[in-house]
Specification:
The chain is an alpha/beta fold. A hairpin with a 4-residue loop joins strand 24 (about 575-580) and strand 25 (about 585-590).
């Protein structure tokens, strides 16, 4: 019998069964977390159904999306979570504590070989310490709170081999962007990955976190690193216990090996709108910038802030620039205070905020305005994600260099005193929630869906396009409905067009991005009967299945079969048969599958 990968061994240990790719297992969870975004919905699901908690000691809330409680809806959601936590004896990492996934590592909620789920789509950052972390929607997390386990399909594992040594100016963020440029937005779709290579042993915990945090943008379930002695020591100090790191077997089987050449790597940057649209910083040198942001789960650690402070020493940002800095955790914030880094940053012109996620949530430090050009250290620059301007993704060094120069530049440009000519940036390219359909007797959801077709022939439609983050505090599905596809150019009219039973047919990697359940609930509230796409973002597909919205996978694209918006369509969820009624045409899709179909038949996971 062949050996197992890291993830397969972790899942086997938490199910009592041998984990093989494609198997659906009930995975025991060491820790389950809800954030201020999604947390109130988790509480609502539990209270509406009278569900208790499997183990309050393994359960927590983290308030990291809106760490200042500055939005009334967020404040209300946070208070609802607090009250629930007090009644149930659940721990709350309250305002200013920091980003939940980082707290999980630093506070001992997760350790190498453990299992962890959160309403954070970047919970897979736990792969940096060799743990299984997953972002999930609020229905999944409610079930995890209640039962202490969750169903999960074992993904295939890809080996990502980093070849060569990067150049002296390259950082972990540049390595991550290089991998992303090779994989694209969906090159690791539905797969786990193990990152190996000569450089890996040299990577600090902070560097591993930076690289792992971009796994979601590659479509990956998780990017995992074999724990180094430094990582093991950090986690033992935080978590204690007698656990042992989990390593892949020498004869483990991988779906494939993806080689990424990082030899001589120089600083990289992602152009606005697409994290995977990566070029060298040198290619964009001189592009005028209005603001910069250093923070997020990708680059808000101690090493990141120290790099910014070093470059700012004896310097200030340009007069018309804004530099926003947000530490990942309160521990990082306090360390920076005690070491004098905050004084250096402030003297250099930086605006410093409480620990948290910041720019990824509307209303937080890091968002930009219309026409504003920002260099950000975040992991996403989808249109509208970090504001209404243009967002470039880069390392902390590139971000602060750009703030000093007032234009995109490298740290070497600043140190050498090289003049950078500043050039203008290029132009940037209501219904109540229905019950699931029932058969003629009204006794159970029908397995045949019939309605009109709404074609969205676009790849990589992310969750911000389906349901924008400025509406995250909405908890009533009926209020979500008018915002469906509100950030997808050309398709904002869908809420007015939609009728119960309609079917949305999209391209590849539909629903990539955030873990937000609202991107499913908004469609359910409009009465959407089913989704069809050539592939899905992994978290989105789970959220759809768990919410009772069937999501079929079909290799054929709508244009290839002549399917158009308005066509009548009939779908057999059990067989995957798609019939274009008016055209008399039949297309075969992948059947929904036994577990998803059973969840659909009972009206959703809960």
């Amino acid at each position: 019998m062949a050996g197992q990968t890291m993830l397969e061994k972790i899942l086997s240990a938490h199910t009592g069964k041998r984990a093989e790719p494609g198997a659906v297992l009930d995975v025991k969870l060491d820790t389950r977390v809800a954030r201020d975004f999604g947390g109130a919905n988790v509480v609502g699901h539990l209270e509406q159904r009278g569900l208790g908690l499997a183990d309050p000691g393994r359960t927590a809330f983290t308030f990291d999306c809106n760490p200042a409680g500055s939005d009334q809806k967020y404040a209300a959601n946070q208070q609802r979570c607090r009250l629930f936590a007090r009644r149930q004896g659940v721990r709350v990492f309250d305002l200013g504590s920091g980003i939940g996934t980082h707290l999980a590592i630093d506070q001992g909620l997760a350790w190498p070989g453990s299992t962890f789920v959160s309403t954070d789509s970047h919970a897979n950052i736990l792969g940096a310490i060799g743990a299984f972390g997953q972002g999930m929607g609020d229905i999944d997390i409610a079930a995890a709170f209640a039962h202490g386990k969750i169903w999960f399909e074992v993904p295939p594992t890809v080996q990502v081999l980093l070849r060569g040594q990067p150049g002296p100016a390259a950082t972990a963020k540049d390595i991550a962007l290089k991998i992303l440029s090779v994989t694209g937005a969906s090159g690791l779709l539905g797969c786990a990955a193990e990152v190996v290579g000569e450089i890996v042993d040299q990577l600090s915990l902070d560097a591993r976190l930076t690289i792992s945090s971009l796994g979601t943008e590659m479509g990956a379930i998780i990017l995992m690193f074999a724990p180094s002695p430094e990582v093991v020591a950090h986690c033992r100090a935080a978590a204690g216990g007698d656990w042992q790191p989990v390593l892949a077997d020498a004869d483990a089987r991988y779906a494939r090996t993806l080689e990424v050449d990082i030899a001589g790597l120089e600083p990289l940057i992602s152009r606005p709108g697409h994290p995977e649209d990566v070029v060298t910083v040198a290619e964009l040198r001189g592009t005028a910038v209005d603001s910069t942001f250093v923070g997020s789960c990708t680059n808000g650690r101690w090493e990141d802030l120290a790099a910014v402070a070093r470059l700012l020493e004896g310097r200030r940002i340009a007069n018309d620039m804004v530099l926003k800095v947000v530490p990942a955790t309160d521990a990082v914030w306090r360390r920076a205070l005690e070491a004098g880094l905050l004084r250096q940053l402030k003297q250099g012109g930086a605006l410093i905020a409480s620990a948290g996620c910041a720019g990824c949530a509307e209303g937080q430090i890091g968002q930009n305005g219309p026409g504003e050009v920002t260099v950000s250290t975040g992991n996403r620059n989808f249109a509208g994600k970090q504001g209404k301007g243009q967002v470039y993704l880069a390392s902390p060094e590139t971000a602060v260099a750009s703030a000093i120069m007032g234009a995109i530049a490298t740290a070497d440009d600043v140190r050498s005193g090289r003049q950078v000519a500043r050039q203008a940036a290029p132009a940037a390219a209501v219904a109540a929630k229905p019950k699931p359909a029932t058969d003629a007797t009204g006794s159970s959801p029908a397995t045949v869906v019939e309605g009109r077709l709404f074609v969205v022939p676009v790849d990589n439609v992310d969750t911000d396009m389906i349901f924008h983050n400025r509406h995250l505090a909405i908890t009533d599905p009926a209020q979500m409905a008018p915002h469906a596809f509100g950030n997808l150019e050309g398709y904002q009219h869908f809420p007015q067009w939609a009728q119960p039973g309609d079917v949305v047919w999209a391209g590849s990697n539909f629903g990539c991005g955030s873990s937000r359940q609202q991107a499913v609930d908004a469609l359910l509230a409009l009465g959407v009967g089913a989704l069809v796409a050539s592939s899905y973002g992994a978290i989105y597909w789970r959220n759809a299945v768990n919410g009772g919205l069937p999501a079929l996978t079909c290799a054929a694209l709508p244009a290839e079969v002549g399917a158009q918006t308005g066509d009548r369509v009939r779908i057999d969820l059990a067989t995957g048969r798609i019939e274009l009624i008016d055209k008399g045409q039949v297309i075969e899709a992948r059947p929904l599958g036994e577990v998803p179909l059973s969840i659909y038949k009972r009206g959703g996971l809960l």
